[in-house]
Specification:
Blueprint lengths: L2 H13 L3 E2 L3 H5 L9 H6 L5 E5 L5 H9 L4 E6 L2 H13 L5 E5 L14 E7 L17 H10 E11 L2 H14 L2 E6 L10 H5 L3 H8 L5 E6 L2
Helix pairs in contact: 1-5
Length: about 220
């Protein structure tokens, strides 16, 4: 994407009421006003909050919001030029139960208070296969601890990925650390039993993976 296009999207994001872009200092100083107040300030209701981490273009968050009007969805990504598309669609469709947050996932605890989040989706994250990159893997123990700190006691995490490495790594870590695996499937489009929402919604990249006959894997779990 050209830099002109990116700039245009950044500017348009600033006009969207559903886009929130705190700066790093605001977060690390714990002065981000929405922390603990997403329902009262943004959604104006007490419905469950669901995050999509690394939301990309935001199409998964938007489709979840369409399907579940009684839940609130927040797509999180550091690349605002990507989720611009989802934010714009939500504005055009007057979808008031979806918002977007531009931040690094490492700072997620500074964006949400304890027990504020009901559910998390991690859709097609970079598996960070190289050993030196393990600290960036979104299901490593450090990230799981961050998620636990913002999730309600029985909060659920969903991992959907085309990476068999990421699927196996996460399953091994969950079992090894005594977390609760509620459901696991290494090929959701071939094996029956996956929750309908898993196969009914596809990201842009997911449809490409399916064209290449790549198996899509899914794990649903709780962090203990």
């Amino acid at each position: 994407m050209g830099s002109k296009n990116k700039l245009k999207r950044f500017k348009e994001n600033e006009t969207f009421s559903n886009v929130h872009q705190p700066n790093r200092e605001e977060l690390t100083n714990n002065t981000f006003a929405l922390k603990g107040n997403w329902n009262s300030e943004v959604f104006k209701n007490n419905n469950p909050i669901v995050l999509e981490l690394g939301c990309g273009k935001g199409e998964y968050s938007v489709e979840l919001a369409r399907r579940f009007p009684n839940k609130n969805f927040i797509g999180v990504d550091i690349k605002g030029s990507r989720f611009w598309r989802g934010a714009k669609t939500a504005v055009e469709e007057n979808l008031n139960n979806v918002a977007f947050l531009r931040t690094q996932i490492e700072l997620i605890e500074h964006c949400f208070a304890a027990n504020e989040v009901d559910e998390i989706w991690i859709t097609f994250p970079d598996p960070q296969i190289k050993y030196k990159r393990t600290k960036h893997r979104l299901t490593n123990q450090e990230f799981l601890t961050r998620y636990k700190n913002i999730l309600k006691p029985n909060g659920v995490v969903n991992l959907k990925t085309d990476s068999e490495f990421m699927h196996g790594y996460t399953l091994g870590l969950l079992h090894g650390a005594g977390h609760t695996v509620l459901y696991a499937n290494h090929n959701v489009y071939k094996n029956e039993g996956a929750p309908e929402v898993v196969t009914a919604i596809q990201t842009f990249y997911e449809s490409q993976y399916l064209e290449q006959n790549k198996p899509i894997t899914y794990i649903q779990f709780q962090i203990k």
